[in-house]
Amino acid sequence: MHRAGRARCPLALGRFGVRTAPALLLGFGGFLLGVIDFLIYFAPLVTPVVLVPLPLMVMVGGPAAATFTGFHTLVQTAVPDAFRGRILGLLFATQALTSLAGMGLAGFLGDKIGIVPVLTTDCIAYVIAGGLVLVLLGCATLGTQTSTRPDNSASHAVPVAV
Fold first, then answer.
1. Which pLDDT score, from 0 to 100, does residue 154 have?
2. Is the separation of the CB atoms in 19 and 146 below 8 Å?
3. What is residue 66's DSSP assignment?
4. Which secondary structure element, helix H or strand E, spans residue 25, and what is its range?
5. I need a labelling partner for 8 at 20 to 30 A (CA). Which of 63, 64, 113, 134 fits?
6. In the predicted model, what is the mean pLDDT of residues 44-52?
7. With bands split at pLDDT 50, 70 and 90, how would you rate the model's confidence at 156?
8. Under a CB-based contact definition with an 8 Å cutoff, are residues 34 and 123 in contact?
9. Rounded Cα–Cα distance for residues 38 and 59 (Å)
10. Contact yes or no for 25/137 (Cβ under 8 A)
């Protein structure tokens, strides 16, 4: 179901994402991802209708695609060409290792404290991370022009520590 939203979202991102700063895509995407996931996980507690989470599962694909698009755009535009491959390789390896550690931790904690607190923590983490991106990077990008770098230079309006 998530893939249905991710399949439709690039059309909207391609049309409107050019006018949106990557940090805002990353921040709002992460924030909405946490909120919609929370609604998906806890809808059964509010209503016995099984079909309520289904449209939410389609909708969550959009914020997920916006989050990943914003992240990759930030990295690709903030890093000089000479270092881009190394930085992306390091980020992808770190992401794979932290995903593996997170799955192990979630499995361990799921057995100890239950799945509901683990899922709630996941939602809260996305909301906080999205909010932090909006506060720390979003303010720096408001009012800046977002476009691809035609001269392939490393200048960009978003301050990113690498």
1. 46
2. yes
3. H
4. helix 22-46
5. 134
6. 81
7. very low
8. yes
9. 13
10. no
Q: Is the dihedral of CA 34, 121, 139, 22 positive or negative?
A: negative
What is the Cα gyration radius of the chain?
A: 17
Predicted confidence at residue 121, as pLDDT, reads 93
Is 131's pLDDT higher than 50? yes
Residue 56: is its pLDDT beyond 60?
yes
What is the Cα–Cα distance from 131 to 117, expressed in whole angstroms?
Answer: 21
Give the pair of three-digit tokens for residue 65: 């695609």
Mean pLDDT, to the nearest integer, of 44-73?
Answer: 87
Tokens of 82: 């000479």
Give me the helices (H) in 17-155, please. Answer: 22-46, 53-59, 61-78, 81-113, 115-133, 139-141
User: In angstroms, rounded to a whole number, what is the distance separating the alpha carbons of residues 51 and 65?
Assistant: 23
Q: What's the CA gap between 107 and 46, in Å, rounded?
A: 26
The residue whose two tokens read 């969550």 is 60
State pLDDT tens for residues 105-124: 999 999 999 998 999 999 99
**Residue 67 near residue 33 (C-beta atoms within 8 A):** yes
pLDDT of residue 159: 46
- The whole-angstrom separation of Cα 60 and Cα 2 is 6
Angle at 71 between CA 129 and CA 32, to 5 degrees: 45
